[in-house]
Amino acid sequence: MSAAETGSRQTNSRATIEACLAKGRPALMVYLPVGYPTVAGSIAAMEAVIDAGADIVEVGMPYSDPVMDGTVIQAAATTALERGVRVDDVFEAVAAVRAAGATPVVMSYWNLVLHRGVHRFAADLKAAGGAGLITPDLIPEEAGEWIEASDAYDLDRIFLVAPSSTRQRLATVTAACRGFVYAASTMGVTGVRSQVGSSAEDLVARTREVSDVPVCLGLGVSTGEQAAQIGSYADGVIVGSALVRALTADLTEDGATTGELDPGLATLRSMTAELAAGVRRARPQVDHD
After folding, report:
1. Annotated catalytic residue within 69, 89, 124, 235
2. Angle, nearest 10°, between helix axes 266-280 and 241-249?
3. Residue 157 and residue 111: Cα distance in Å, rounded?
4. Is 69 one of the catalytic residues?
5. Which among 101, 207, 208, 256 would be 20 to 30 A from 38, CA to CA?
6. How many domains is the chain partitioned into structurally?
7. Is residue 147 part of a domain?
8. Whole-prediction pTM value?
9. Which residue range forms the structural domain that includes residue 134?
């Protein structure tokens, strides 16, 4: 099932994930930052990954102090900020993702939302076609204004759990989530890893014990084999740093795109296609349409 089949008409991320699961596979979610290498270039990159098989696009809002992000994403965010990326550019990217046939969710550090105004941000996100917001540095206990705004505008709110999360913590976080819960497979910042931590499957299982919210797992996924491994037990597979690195491989020193594919996104497309193939073979006992 292609991204177009999961549908830009799906109103939220849970509907998209459940549509994928109904076809016998997890959803593929990819992260790309707005403004890298340029705003137009980042939108082209998002359209490329959708064309190659991504179901949900995590639209990254660059931030000057990205405490959760590893070096690859930090470098891309720095470049985007130096080139003048703005919050309005994020909403432009969200609209483009929706138009291209995938479900857009924004990943943002909370201070940027506060600076714009929580209800204004929610209204703008909804108007652009966004499904919701991932907030890596916001916990449910401090999210009252966002919970109110997301309810008002029918937006997904996606909080994070980690291997260190206790049963009570998992229950608290998932109760506040709508759309899906973001499960970090390892402790620490984002980045490509040679293997996904052994605690990942346990984290998904423990989360399911306390909630029926879909569980999407990320941090470290970089290959189709890893996507298939995680997709055998998670509802969604999240990939970020590996794709940002792939995009970097298609850039010249001045940030222009290269390659025969216009706008020069051959490596990014190829890696996304490999990841999409991985999630499609994650559950081989199921017959796919």
Report:
1. 69
2. 150
3. 16
4. yes
5. 101
6. 1
7. yes
8. 0.88
9. 3-280
